[in-house]
Write a structure and sequence with these properties.
Elements lengths: L15 E5 L6 E5 H6 L2 E3 L6 E3 L2 H20 L9
Antiparallel strand pairs: 1-2, 3-4
Bound molecules: zinc ion.
Zinc ion binds next to loops.
Length: 82
């Protein structure tokens, strides 16, 4: 299937991932590397401590990669560059 999507530069460890607080609805941005190294974070809006499973984070990150890949594969070339 050509070049693996894992080679693409996106969702790197120091990229930020928005986390929406289920309590107040505020979005707190955390670096992906940080999220993968922890299992809880504090909401920047209301101060609630939010817990999560690292496996879930890894799976959702994987899904995000797939979504980007899927979108790119659905593109049509309507006019080539030359
Ligand atoms: Zn909150």
């Amino acid at each position: 299937m050509g070049r693996a999507w894992r080679d693409e530069v996106m969702f790197e460890d120091d990229d930020e991932w928005p986390v929406r607080c289920p309590s107040c609805g505020d979005t707190t941005r955390k670096q992906i590397g940080w999220l993968m190294a922890n299992t809880r974070l504090r909401c920047g809006g209301c101060g609630a401590v939010l817990g999560y499973y690292r496996e879930r984070m890894a799976r959702d990150l994987d899904d995000a990669h797939r979504a980007v890949d899927s979108f790119s594969r659905g593109l049509r070339i309507e006019k080539s560059a030359r």
